[in-house]
Design goal:
Elements lengths: L2 E2 L4 E2 L4 E2 L2 E2 L2 E7 L3 E8 L7 E11 L1 H6 L13 E9 L8 E4 L2 E2 L5 H4 L10 E3 L3 E2 L6 E5 L3 E3 L6 H4 L2 H14 L7 E4 L3 H13 L4 E4 L2 H9 L4 E3 H4 L5 E6 L6 H8 E9 L12 H5 L3 E4 L5 H10 L8 E6 L3 H9 L5 E5 L3
Parallel strand pairs: 11-12, 15-16, 15-18, 16-17, 18-19, 19-20, 21-22
Antiparallel strand pairs: 1-3, 2-8, 3-4, 5-6, 7-8, 7-13, 7-22, 8-9, 9-14, 10-11
Helix pairs in contact: 4-5, 4-10
Length: 342
Amino acid sequence: MGIRKNPCQSVAAWFFDGEAVGRVKGLYYDGALSFRADLPVPGRRPGESLVAVTLAGICATDIEIARGYMVFRGVPGHEFVGRVAESDRAETVGRRVVGEINCPCGDCDLCRGGRGNHCPTRTILGIAGRDGAFAEYLVLPDENLRRVPDGMGDREAVFTEPLAAACRAVEHAAARPGERVAVLGDGRLGLLAAMAFAASGVPATVIGRSVRKLALARERGIRAMTLEEAGKGFGADVVVEATGCRDGLAHALSLTRPQGRIVMKTTIAGRHEVNLAPLVVDEIALIGSRCGPFDRALALLASGAVDLRGLVSGEFPIERGLEAMEEARAPGALKVLLACGR
């Protein structure tokens, strides 16, 4: 036995008979979140690429992971942009990429039916069974990676995953011209969803609590109001619930007209406590919504249809990752970024 370099294209680390000798920096959750400088370079299998993470974004799900959501253990984080450091596909090494986060088995009925995002044995980057983006390196299947257009900056590309989730909400809403659409929640996802609706040709009203965030919506030509201003009589045909709060669904129900639709985006570690009788009495459809189309998100970013000005609250080096998480939890915070690159 001895030290050898991986025979594939690589700029990442030296290996001892396949085991990574190099150590990298990152955040690690094991009942508590900590910064570590001794994480192994993640090993990849055939058909997977090792990606050197440049920037990662902190979202509400990451905050909930650190509160015990999904009973996850490992490196959290799933929003990122980086460069391929090692791959069986030599032509991709050095390429800037973003990545879809669900890694399905490819063989079950759901996978064969084109619903791999719901594969029962899938791993999910930084959420379930797979170390994520809050470290210097991550591993994803080659088929999950999407090339970042040359003219797009890293601070735009890092929004691909949350914007894709916003686009999925638009798909699930299936709003028709003339219908009244509300996005409940003026945070990171809510503002992206409102812009995605505008790009689809069906405008939405943002309903929230932050004067500053509602002003950001208005600067983009999006109608915005407080929850108090909307009141119970708002009567939306479609409400996208993106509050990140356990009382969000109750507020969404109060804003939705009979036979309307609620698209649910919030995921929290705790339980929702809400009277579901209005779903039956008013015949309201409740639709869960999760990950979305990366190609659509990249196209919106490339076209300039989504205005990201003012959406970044701060940027921290990975060594200050715990501080970054605290910043992301603070009232009024929008997107907080981690600079993970060497």
